[in-house]
Every structure is written in C-alpha cells, then in structure tokens.
Design a protein that fits this description.
mainly alpha; Growth Hormone, Chain: A; 0% strand; disordered N terminus
Amino acid sequence: MTASTSVASRVATGRYRWTICAMMFFATTINYMDRQMLGLLAPLLQKDIGWTQVQYAQTVMVFTVAYAVGLAVFGRIADRVAEKRVYGTAMAMWSVAAMLHALASSVPGFAAVRGLLGFSEASNFPVAIRTTAVWFPKKERALATGLWNMGATVGGIVAPAFVPIVAVMWGWRAAFIIGGIAGFVWLVVWMAIYRSPQSNPGVSAAELEYINSDAGETEPAEAKVAWLSVLRYRETWAFMVGKFMTDPIWWFYLFWLPKWLNESNHIDIQDMGLPLVVIYTMSCIGSVGAGWVSSRLMARTQRPNFARKATMLVCALCVMPIALLSQVQTLWFAVLAVGLAAAAHQGWSANLVTLVSDVFPKRAVGTVIGIGGVMGMVGSFLFSGVIGETLQRTGQYWALFAAGALAYIIALAIMHVLMPRMTPVKLRDE
C-alpha cells in the first residue's frame, strides 16, 4: 500500500477518535495547569506563608503520596468503570480541590488541599491510556498518546503565561479559582459528547472497524484481571522500573523550576514567564515528535520493540546535556538545556506508557498503568525528600540535575534486560 493510499484509507474511516484525543489533551492541559500553579506561586507564597525549603518539599511529598494512592485506585477503576463516568467524576474532584487552594493560609492547609488535588489528578493518565486503547489501534496509539500527553507541556506554557498576571492583578487566590472553573467547563463538554465507540453516533462503521482492526482484540468486555496478578509478568516490572526512575525527574522540573529560576538566576514572578514558556514549548515538540517518530517506525518496520526502544534511547541521550548546568552559568543555556531535557522526558513518557497498550490486552491496561504510576510516585516521593534536604543544606541544584541526566539511560538498560522483546502478554486468568 502506498503512502497516499494509506492516508486516504485513514481519512475514509472517519475522524471522531481524534475528537476524543482532543478532549484528553484539554483534560491533561487543565490537569497540569492546576498542579503547576504551586510552583509558579511558590516565591509569592513563601513570603505570605513563610515555609522553608524542607516544608515546601514536604508539601510536594504530600501531593506525591496522594497521587500514588490515586493512581492505584483510578488505575483499577479505569478497567472496571466506563471512561465517561470515571473521567468526569475525577475532573469534578480535582477542579474543586484546585479552588480550595484559595482558602488555604498555612503550610498544613496547603498540604491538605494538595493531597486532595494529587489523589484526584492521578486519574488522568490511567483513564486516558485506557481510553486511548479503546479508541485507537496499536499503530496509532503512540501518536495519539503523544498528542494528548502534549497537554502536560501546554499546561506548563499556559500557566506561566497567565498565572503571574492574575496573581499581580487579583492575588494568588484568584489563579486557583480560575483553574478550577476551567475544569468544570471541560466537564460539561465531556458529558455531552462522550459515548463508547460502539454506541457513539459520530463513529462511522468504517471507523469502528479501523479502531478494532488489531488482531487479538476480541476479548469479551466483561473479562476482568486481578489487580496483583499482573505482577507475574516481567513486562509489568519493566514499566514499573521506567516510571520509578524517570517520573521523579519530571516532578522535579514541574515543582522546582520556578524556584530554581528565582533562586539561581534571580528572576521574579513577573519575569519568569518567558523562560518557562520556552521550556514547555520545547516539551510540546518532544511529546508529539517522539510519538510521531515511534509511530512511523512502527508502521514501516512492524517491530514495536525496535520502534519504541530506539525512540526512547534517543530521548535518553537528549537528557544528558542537563548535567552541564553547573559548568555554564548563562541563563539561556540553562533554559535551553532544561527545555531539551523536558522535551526528551515527554517523548520518553509517551512511548513508555504506550508500551503497556502494546503488550497487554485492553482489560489490563489501566491496572498496569496504575501500578507503574504508583512506583513513579514512590520514586518522586523519595526524590522530593532528597531535593529538600540537598537544597536546605547546600543551596545547590547541580547534583539534582546530574541525577536527572543519567536516570533515563539506566532505566532503559534495566527495562531491556527485563523485556528484551515486546510480545503480547497472554494473561493467565485466575
């Protein structure tokens, strides 16, 4: 089949699945806007509340613990409850939690609302991955994941563009309220348009056939997988290692970059928008670019093991220049190095989560994503403690960036040992 014929075939099937992908993109954008606000407002809040580096780290740790619990819960729910209901309920929960930040006035108060936000926001990735598996054939999943996952970086762009303005004009409490309102707008649209592919009037017969075109995707909808039974498989452990070692680096960027810009480069809240926009714009390119490259390699070679791992290797190598931050004290070198690392992480992440839907049947995807996500948050919790103590004692970031430079290549090596070939997992039902 020629490239033009392939494109024509995809157009003929219909496009409604991309509408669902767009909704997941906007949900992820709102998700990251809400969580990014604390980091952006940290210099302002530090003056109002007076928390120390360790107290700020502890607040971040509360978020990560709650997020880990939420991943386990929502990962399980994603495989048992319809996507419409679970996504809608979770969006309502995290939008309320975002607005409750406006009522917090102490370190314990912020810790409490961050915990609620973390628990409910954890729903996004397991439910979105499950929804991607429902709506897309394997050959399109990495691209679709890269597109909606780009919302994480768009949220990182939008937040620094508007949060400082809102905070200066109306105060930091207004920023949290606006973030919550955005979630409820999304919720109204989601509840109005979402139906499963089989019952959605916007999905043509040709598109439904294309969505279900993968061989072996005929398992009964009522089939369930026991939660801990997936731990029997090396593929689950490979995913867990990838999340445990690399998720902490992304959370470091997310929560500590504004503080780093403020403390190391003396940039206040009014001026940090441009550097953060550049960093997260680069992240967008990495998310979509790596998803596109992986999907193209998959289409050309029909070798998912090569397509995913080769793309992840390139991403791992692109993170490494961040280790040079301690040697070059130029602001824009630092911004570009962090931007490249953040772009590489998003490309890595898009392919890492796609591995799960490549090898596991749909009924197990949410469960595996949830368990792997918990491991990612365990790593993030531990690393947050290290960050707080390191900065409290030394005030230096170089060791933290150096750890980030090596994490991905080590993780990929371990993953390859655990999963040298990507072959479909045949679940042994209990």
